[in-house]
Amino acid sequence: MTSIGEDLLPSTRRALLHRIAVAQRDGRAPSLVAAVRREGRTAWSGARTGVEDHGPDADTQYRIGSITKTFTAVLVLRLRDEGLIDLADPLEKHLPGTGVGDVTIFQLLCHSAGLGAETPAPWWERTPGDLRPGIADVLGDRPQPHPAGHRHHYSNPGYTLLGSLVAAVRGVSWEEALRREILEPLGMHRTTSDAVAPHAGGWAVHPWADVLLSEPVEDLGLMAPAGQLWSTTEDLLRFAAFLTAGDDRVLPAASVREMRTPAAPVEVGASGYGLGLQIVGGEGRVLFGHSGSLPGFVAGLWVCEEEDVAAVVLANATSGLPAATVAAELLNIVVEAEPRIPDSWRPLRDVDDELLALTGVWYWGTMTFTLSLAADRGLQLTPLGGMGRGSTFTHRPDGTWTGQNDYYAGETLRVVRKDDGSVDHLDLGSFVFTREPYETGAAVPGGVDAEGWRGLGG
């Protein structure tokens, strides 16, 4: 099969088709389907298949493996937003008797609870879920090989616990909560727990011969929240749009932004992990999403918020085709070939003179910064010459600002005034910013040498 899509240039469409054609051939996948969303709609979709005159399309289901975890994380964040749980709560508070109840919900979401990566044998992805009827069967005799909170250690059983948490708090099954709270509001009618035709079959390809072996399709039981779902490229692009902008029927923008914020320390050189989302950097941009695999299937979904582009790749092979890598490459092809046209510059609607007076050059010690005014009374602190720490700040009703990123994330910026009402300095997490370097008369900690600036000569 070739590709469809009128929103991209012919050269871009050909580059995308070429990439998936090479991926399907070199990865020896029986079939592959891919799609790209840009600026709110599907811009391209394509497929390749080893079966002549028969291939998948945007409505063909594949198993998506661990992309399921992102859906489970959304359900948990909904509970938090409704005030039914707190992410700092120990699991025991809402799901007693697991044996690992001291770990927090937050740690489970970002894989820092120290739990094992897999269940005890037999291999859970290839055996019926009824072999693990209880939490103890999922966790095993040594459920926590690492101390909680010390490192990121990816854990499939951890997401089983989160699925059970959702069921316990909601009083309905994880599947029912998923359908009612995410799939139906977002119109994801082709995302299901069990395969619904048309769907691809799962295959293993012999490593040294071009022959196939059918993989079993199992109901994962308690492990379903870690990897059960089937979906299509069309549905997953809808989900990508939600993960970019939020949807008040499911989760507001602030909560999905929280999901894609790095939340746990990772090994040197590893990609980051938020709350149910992987975060990777490369090619000068940050992507968030998730990879997925189950015997017979591989999947990848990546989103670039800055460029408003998302890409998904689904294939029905156990190994050989790095679906997540290919999805990222499709995204990068579009961004590099057809960079997003930026929005027009527009002046602010309203300006507060006192706020405007704060803009310009400020000094922390001898380091130079600029303070700029942003929309909604926000501020942007930028180091000059690349030296120093910057951040964006959002305005709070009490007249202070909160840092949104990097070193100053969560820190408070406030204006300190003199008795006459004039500005003395800015206080940022106890750091003093003045209009002149070590300004005389300003409340600089430690005071300012009365002799002032001078040279070394006598």
Automatic annotation (TrEMBL):
Name this protein carries in UniProt: Serine hydrolase
Keywords: Hydrolase
Recorded superkingdom: Bacteria
UniProt GO MF annotations: hydrolase activity
Domain annotation Beta-lactamase-related: ranges: 24-331
InterPro entries, per database record: AmpC-like (IPR050491), Beta-lactam-related (IPR001466), Beta-lactam/transpept-like (IPR012338), DUF7586 (IPR056008)
Gene3D superfamilies reported in the protein's UniProt record: DD-peptidase/beta-lactamase superfamily
Residues in DUF7586 domain copies: 351-435
